[in-house]
Amino acid sequence: MVTSATVRAQRFERCQLLKVLTATCTQTRLLAVELTDVLFQRSRVFRGLLAPRLTAFLVAAVGYRQEEPLPGPEAAAAALRERALEVLEAWNDKFGGMYHQVGQLQVSVQVQSGL
Question: DSSP secondary structure string, 15-36?
Fold first, then answer.
């Protein structure tokens, strides 16, 4: 039996939003972070679908892994990183009690980024 949650998860997997976060253009990634923030703030279903994929989101938006840096130019990459960290902090403040992954990843990113 296929549940509605399974169907939603399958649709999310096909969602272009997470694919956009791997774009080679920093501005495109920044716009994807902004859209993800709006959806995360407004939709419980979206939060539930994104929560298990937060690591992939942060790797693409913060670039804290040396083997997966953000695309240039450096100023744009810094703006993307700063905005993604702001979004993560806001999510933790608002939803950290329900989505523990957010708080755990915020600490992990800060430690790995040396922030």
Answer: -HHHHHTT-S-HHHHHHHHHHH
Name the H helices within 1-115: 4-13, 16-20, 26-42, 44-50, 54-62, 74-95, 100-113
**What is the per-residue pLDDT across 37-53, written as a single tens digit (0 to 9) for each?**
999 999 988 888 888 88
Taking the mean position of all CA atoms in its chain, how far away is CA 107?
Answer: 14
Question: What are the pLDDT digits (tens) for 67-79?
Answer: 888 888 999 999 9
Q: How buried is residue 5: exposed, middle or buried, by Cβ count under 10 Å (0-12/13-18/19+)? A: exposed
| Domain ranges across the chain | 4-113
